[in-house]
Each structure stands twice: as structure tokens, then as C-alpha cells.
Amino acid sequence: MLNYGLSAALEEYTDELNVRAEYSVDIQVEIFTSGPQHDAMVEAHLYRIVQQACENALRHAQASTIHLHGNCDPEGVQLMIEDNGIGLTGMDPLDISQLLADKHYGIAGMFERAEIIGAELHMDTIPGRGTKVILVWHPEQAK
């Protein structure tokens, strides 16, 4: 689906995620798109970061709601993934070596992918109240 753009691919992914969820989860997607697609490699990394954030919310955080929203336009991509799951402890400040030591390979991979394409990735989590992942990429940041 990435051939049709990041937004279309994410909408299809979240539809599939909803179908295969083992419990009832409300997944909302609001991505505003304008202009041409970005580089295929960049969109693939952005997609995988969002995919990992959603999988974490579903598999590990036991979230009942996942809200994916943002913009994909010529100036860049701004996405936010919010869930109401159990959150994470020990994530402030974020330390990649600690993530790996604690076997949070998916989260570490998200940050590695963001670094590869020059994106900013922020993760705010509150134990018992959920997690917010903010992903921002601008073409001039591309490596």
C-alpha cells in the first residue's frame, strides 16, 4: 500500500490491526494529506515507526483506544499516536542502551529508524495513563 502513499498505507494497516485485535479496541485515524508523496525509503521508515507504536499499544499496553492523527504534506510529516494503555516505567530520560538491556527492542528500533531518516521522535508515557508518540520529519532533515 505504500505505493499509494503513507496515509493510505496507514489507514489500511489500522483497518487490519482492528480486525486482528484479540480484544475490542477503538482505533481512530485522522491523517490529512496534500501534495506529492515523499521518498519511498522515508515513507517506509515512517510507516514502520507508526506500525511499531500501534503494535506496542495493542500487544503490550492493553490499550482500548489508539488515536493516530497528523499531517503528510510537502513541508513534511507530523504524526501522533496516542493510546490509553498501561504506559511504561523507567522511560525518562530515554536511554537506548537501557531500552536494549530491558529488551524493548521495538522501541529502540523506532528510534533507530527515526535517526536513519533524520526524523524527530518523542515518547511521553505515564504509567497507568497511556503513551503518546510524536513523530516529525521534514525534507530538509533527510540524511
Structure description:
The protein is an alpha+beta fold and 143 residues long. The protein has one domain (2-141): Heat Shock Protein 90 (2-Layer Sandwich), CATH 3.30.565. The chain is 38% helix and 28% strand. It has four helices and five strands, in the order αβαββααββ. The protein has a five-stranded mixed sheet, covered by helices on one side. Helix 1 (6-20) runs parallel beside helix 2 and helix 2 (40-59) packs antiparallel against helix 4 (105-117). The longest helix has 20 residues, at 40-59. The chain is globular, with a radius of gyration of 15 Å. The two termini are 24 Å apart.
State the shape: globular
| Proportion of beta-strand residues | 25-35%
The tally of strands reads 5
Can you write the helix and strand succession as a string?
HEHEEHHEE
CATH topology: Heat Shock Protein 90
Low-confidence stretches: none
Global structural class: alpha+beta
What order do the strands of the largest sheet run in, or round the barrel if closed?
1-2-3-5-4
Architecture in CATH? 2-Layer Sandwich
CATH class: Alpha Beta
- Please bin the fraction of helical residues: 25-40%
Mean pLDDT: 88
Q: Work out the count of structural domains.
A: 1
Radius of gyration: 15 Å
Distance between the termini: 24 Å
Q: What is the count of DSSP helices, taking H or I runs of 4+ residues?
A: 4
